[in-house]
Amino acid sequence: MVWREATTKEELASTLLTRLAESLGAETEAWLDVVERPLPETLRITPGRSDSAWTASQIEALGGRRMAWMNAHEAFTMPFPRGHAEGEGRALLSFLHQSGRITRQEAASMLPVEVLPMNDVEVVVDLCAAPGSKTTQLAEAHPWTTVIANEPVSGRVNTLVSNRGRVSLANVLVVQHDGRHFPRTPAPGVDAVIADLPCTGSATMRKNREVWWAWRPSAGRELHHLQVGIARRAASLVRPGGHVVISTCSLDPVENEAVVAEVLRQCDWMEAVPLPPDRLNGLRLREGLTAWTLLDDEGGALLPEHAEAHHLPPTEVALQDALRMTRRLHPEDNDTGGFYVALLRHRPEATPEGVARTLVPKRPDQTPYLRDLPGPSRHDVHAVEEATSEPLREKHQLSPSLAWWRRGKRLALSPESMRQRLWAPETPDGRGGRFPGGSFHPMRAIHVGLPTFAENRGMWRVRQEGLPVLNRHGSLDALEVDLPVVKRLLAGEALEVDDLPQSVEPGSTLLQVEHPSGSATIPVWVQAKVTLMLDDVERRMLALRLFDRSLLEEEE
C-alpha cells in the first residue's frame, strides 16, 4: 500500500475512487474541492457527568459548534481538521478524551445509533463493535439498556474494553464471536441490532489517505458475501417488532444497497422501514439507489453478463421501494465523511412464535433435554452474595435495579436486564437442547458490566472508573472537604489524617468538594497518611477544572 500525503487534485481526479463518485452522479470538480480536504474534528460529550456542562463550555471556548441533528448527545464540530488542534487546545482535547469526558468520533459514524428506535429496548447487540465508538454512544444515551458489544478479533477486543472503561459504562457486555455465527440468546431474542459491516472504507478518503490509491471496485464485490452473512445473522437474532440497522462507511452500492436487497430476499420476515422522522434534522441525506453501474478495476463499466446477479440492481419492485427508504450521506453535502444506513424491522406477523427466527425450533417434535455447560474458565463471572453486595449498596445508596458480578478480587455492576434477559434464563440450542440458566453461555462473555469495586487488604475500595457509575446510579458516601485540602492532594502531597475535617476508618475513602463547575469526587487511601488514588490524567483534569492550572504546566 502506498502512502501519499501530498497529492494534486489532478492526481486524485485520476483515481478509481473519483470514478466511483462520478458513477454516483458527483460533479468531479465540486466533489474534489471537499473530499481532498481533511475532515473537521468532531466529538461528543459524555452525558451524566457532574462536570458535563463545564466540558461543553471548554469545547465551545475552542470554537466548537453544536451539531443540530444530534439528539441523544451534545456533539460538536471543531474549527480545525482532525488531529490539528494546537497548544493548550490540543492538550485539552487529548485529556478530555482520555478522562472519558468526551469521545472523539467522526460525525458520519454517529448515524447508526441516532436512527435506531429505542422504545422498549432492553437488550441491543453491536455486532461489529470495535473500537467501540458506537457501543459507547449507545450505552451512554441509554444507561439502563444492556449493550452486547461483539468483536471477533482478540486485539480489537482490548480496544473495545479500554473504551468501555474510559467512559465508565456498566451496561456493556463484551463478547467475542464471528458476527456470521453469533450465538442464540434466551427468548424472545434481542430487541435491536446494529450491524456496522466491514467494508472497503471507500467513504473514508478524507481521513484515510491511502484509500485513494488502494481502493478498487472488485474489493467490494469480494466483501459482499461476508457482509450479507453478518447482516443475515443480525436479522435472525432480533425479536418480532425489533429493528436492525445496517451501515457502512462505503460509497459503493455493492456494499450497501446490494447487501440490503439480498438480505431482504433471504430474510422474508424482515422489511425496510423509513428512518425515524424526528432524527437527523438539518443533515442532508440522499435516497438509497435503485440503479447503479458496476465498475471494473480499470474504471470502466462491468458488463452485466460478467457480474454476479446479487451485485446488480434489483429488478423486483418491492426491493426497489425498500432501497428508496435507505439513506446515503455523501461527503460533499455536509462537510463530513461518507456513510450508508438502512433500517430494517422484524415484521411481528411474520413470526407467530413471538421469538427471534434463530429461536424458532427447526423440528418441533424433538424431545427437549438439558445440556451441560462447559468447564470453568478465566472469563467466568459469578453472582455476588448479598452479604458482600448489601453493605456496599447501602453505603452508596445504589439502585436495587443493578446486578452484581464477581470475578477474582473485583465486583462489577450492570443493569438488572443483563441478568434477567441473558444470564438467568435457559437458552435453546436449536436442536432440542437447552443450556441451563445461570450462565451467559453459549455467548462467550469476556467482560461483564463495569468493575466498580476492588478488594484491597480485605477491604473494598471504589475503583476510579467506577466513580461515574456510582454517581449515576446512587448517592456516594463521601466526606465533604474544602478546596485547599483537594489542592494539596492534587499537588502530590500526602496529608495527615488530622487534616481531614472528621475521623475516618482506615482504607478506601471518598472525598467530595463543591465547585461552580460541578462537584468533584476524589478517592483516597487512608492509613498512616492520606494519599490520592487517581491516575495522572484525572489528577491534571481536576487541577484544571478546580484551580485553572494549565495542562501544559508540568511539561514546560
Report on the architecture of this protein.
It is flat, with a radius of gyration of 26 Å. The strands form 5 sheets. Strands 5, 6, 7, 8, 9, 10, 11, 12, 13 and 20 form a 10-stranded mixed β-sheet that branches. The chain has a 5-stranded antiparallel β-sheet with strand order 15-16-17-21-22. The longest helix has 21 residues, at 217-237. Helix 10 packs parallel to helix 11 and helix 11 packs across helix 12 (317-324). The protein folds into 4 domains: 40-105, Alpha-Beta Plaits, CATH 3.30.70; 107-127 and 182-359, Rossmann fold; 382-456, no CATH class; 478-555, Archaeosine Trna-guanine Transglycosylase, Chain: A, domain 4, CATH 2.30.130. It has 556 residues and is an alpha+beta fold. A hairpin with a 2-residue loop joins strand 21 and strand 22. The mean pLDDT is 94. The protein contains 18 helices and 27 strands.
Characteristic key phrases:
single chain; 556 residues; flat; five-stranded antiparallel β-sheet; ten-stranded mixed β-sheet; Rossmann fold; Alpha-Beta Plaits; alpha+beta; 4 domains; 27 strands
